[in-house]
Amino acid sequence: MAIPQPPSSNASDLITESRYPAMTQQSAGPVDGIHTDVMCVSFSDKLLITITQEGRLAQWVHVQLEASTPTLAGLQQLDSSNNLVEDNDDVGLLPMAHLTATTLLGGTVPERQIVGQLLATQIASAVAMKNPQESRMLLLGLGLKSADSAGRRDAYFEIVDLVLKCL
After folding, report:
1. Which residues contact 32 (CB under 8 A, 6 or more apart)?
2. Closest CA to 112 of 58, 71, 70, 37
3. How does pLDDT run across 56-69, given as a tens digit for each residue?
């Protein structure tokens, strides 16, 4: 009588095909006349967003989101299309005060550091408004051609709008 053999433990038998587990979204458009690419990659523990112009990526900033965000009463909300709900309260345009951005790399020029941290907290605020239970870390990579143009109101909101299209 033959002794039964265990099934082969060939490595190829253990591999299963599946999609890459990180969901990725992209958007692109002009910001102050410069083509700008935005990519959002959603990992289980981090939300990675890159904003690049002319292939640059020179500054990294992170913001820790907390699941227990303060009340959003009085702040603008995002509608189902990720657009800011309009009202006359300009306070709703400000980033949430409890969010703190930290520059990890780059940002040695004070103007770039300020713009990078402001963009990071504004984007983190939008993420928190969309999902108040969000607790992942936001990691923002920036490669803006000029901090001056990104610091202007119109360009700033064009960048935020491109990011909202990805969220």
Report:
1. 149, 150, 152, 154, 155, 158
2. 58
3. 999 999 999 875 44
